[in-house]
């Protein structure tokens, strides 16, 4: 038998040293008969873990919450945030932070079990998760990572050998999630609303030390925290827009302080370009539609700014002024992040004032002719316009001339432009029908080969080879729109 320390766990527990009111210390609820379904070998290695040892019964028991590895200190975090605009007390209702893995390089990552049992924050929920949604999070978070988008990652999924009851009986599962940290805008909202200013300062200082150490010596480091957080979120949301990712539930509890994408419940990728695209079954107003994501990012950041008021300045009016001035920069910061990435998607290196309108007119055409988002940019990259819905339209002929003229006005060669486009336009994204197909084989037939092939292709999204061809095809048109669900 392999000793569990051979797995390479090397835990520290800095969060557990914060004020006790920030969390509840408790162990996961053990499960009947855990079985390892998938393990992320490259991620495990990068964390300093031993892939072989992680497959032992002892390690699987750790992924299931049945055993607590040496040095771990399991806890559920408290937070309170805005869900669809309404403020609620939340917290880890079905997750346990088991510790912070310190890698051989000295980096710190939260290791969290999701679906690991009830906590004081479960609010009537069963604390559990089903296999399909946990594998879905695994696939999409790993695809996001490969696309170059900051995200929490997935180390392993185990089944529990216990049923979970949703509309039907499903197989229970636990995901091991890896994150820079699990602090959210909602963590600040909880402390700012219900705890003391001293505790708020404690949380902010901890955050700065863990995620924004560059600003530690700034004159007003809390203002710097707000500004830097805005930059990270603007950059993150711009990256989502560049690949057609729709998060689906941008509540303040699902916005991390580190700037990583978190919570892969109802998210999905857009096929046809349409800013009104919504997949989540509960988002009836389209609050979190594709085209609304940048705006909602700003709204959430304003909630974050409110929590920092007591730290920004001792005089409340001046604190509000500082926060407002910072927040009013958000649109410009976002627009600049978005433009930089969109220019790259079109092979443009330098800046011209009309770039935004060149890009907008392409997007407008794509919307009008219901063009596939990913494949349109692929076609432009490889000069295969005949493959797109825009081919032969009068607008496209005119736009193409403008674009070519624009490329002609920069120093860089055609081939550098082409290379930039290859690196900025993925060949494959996790298309909904492909993800569903993989999950169906895994969950219904216990056949994981479809998912493994998909994961392999998604791990190299910018390699434009024939291997990817098969995964580029959009779904057959259907009368029934694709729907996703929260909290499953
Ligand atoms: P989410 O929609 O996944 O962001 O979850 C919102 C809140 O509900 C968080 O506080 C979760 O911990 C909690 N939650 C979601 N599903 C469950 C569940 N099955 N049992 C307990 N809490 C849950
Ligand atoms: Mg959440």
Question: What this model shows, in words?
Answer:
Belongs to the SELO family. Nucleotidyltransferase involved in the post-translational modification of proteins. It can catalyze the addition of adenosine monophosphate (AMP) or uridine monophosphate (UMP) to a protein, resulting in modifications known as AMPylation and UMPylation. Mg(2+) binds at residues 254, 263. Among the domains are: 4-179, no CATH class; 185-337, no CATH class. It is 41% helix and 14% strand. The strands form four sheets. Strands 1, 3, 7, 8, 9, 10 and 11 form a seven-stranded antiparallel β-sheet that branches. Strands 2-4 form a two-stranded antiparallel sheet. It starts with 10 loop residues before the first strand and ends in a 19-residue tail after the last helix. The chain has helices at residues 41-46, 57-63, 131-146, 185-194, 197-211, 221-243, 293-312, 316-327, 330-345, 355-368, 373-381, 394-408, 414-424, 432-445, 449-458, 466-469; strands at 11-12, 23-25, 35-39, 75-77, 80-83, 86-89, 95-102, 108-114, 129-130, 153-165, 169-179, 245-246, 268-269. The longest helix is centred in the middle third of the chain and has 23 residues, at 221-243. By secondary structure, it is of the alpha+beta class. The chain is built from 16 helices and 13 strands. Adenosine monophosphate (AMP) binds at residues 90-94, 121-122, 125-128, 249, 253-254, 263, 265, 486-487.
